Structure formats: C-alpha cells, structure tokens
Here is the input.
Amino acid sequence: MQTPYQILDVAVDANDKAIKQAYLQQVKNNPPDRNQQRFQLIHDTYTSIKDHKSRVAHNLFTLQAADFNTILDKALHTKQVGTTVSAESFNKLLSISMDDTSLLNAFADADNT
Here is the structure.
C-alpha cells in the first residue's frame, strides 16, 4: 500500500507548496474524465496531507499497513544462535532412554532444590 507521499511523489518532509504543486501535476496527468477512481485517490491523498495540520493528524492517526511478506521473510531467515550438534552426539541423544522412575526422581530432585 502506498503512502500519500508516494502517491503524490513528494518527500515526507515536503512543504505545503511542494505538495500542492505535486497534486496539481498529478491532476493534470490524471484528469477525472480519464480515470475517476485514480483522480479520487489523488484528491483524497492531497486532502490528507495538504497542510501542516493535516500532515500531523495523518502521521498521528494513520496506521501503517503491515507488509506480512517482509515480516515472514525476517522471521524465517533469522540467524540461529547456538551450538551445532554433530551427528554422533545427536545419535547418542536419541539412544538415551529414561524410564518413568528415573523421570519421577529427576522431578523430585528438582523440586527439593
């Protein structure tokens, strides 16, 4: 989802005059008789950031859309920190068996400490 600044193709710190010029250029390139929906988007965008008060309100009360693809990429490609386990150690871990009595004793010992 594009921000109003991206739609009007202006910098986030643009002043009122630059935003109005960008709006007029967008209206010139996208007149209402050519594409009513695009024109309405441009008009609504301009209305939401046309002056300092509107920009402050927009920044305070508009939530950014979450980019779930980016969030998933970051979550799935995180660097795993820790030690590596060799195949031999892994096989030893798999071969360890613990009966119920040993397990109960281990829990009892842990509760007593």
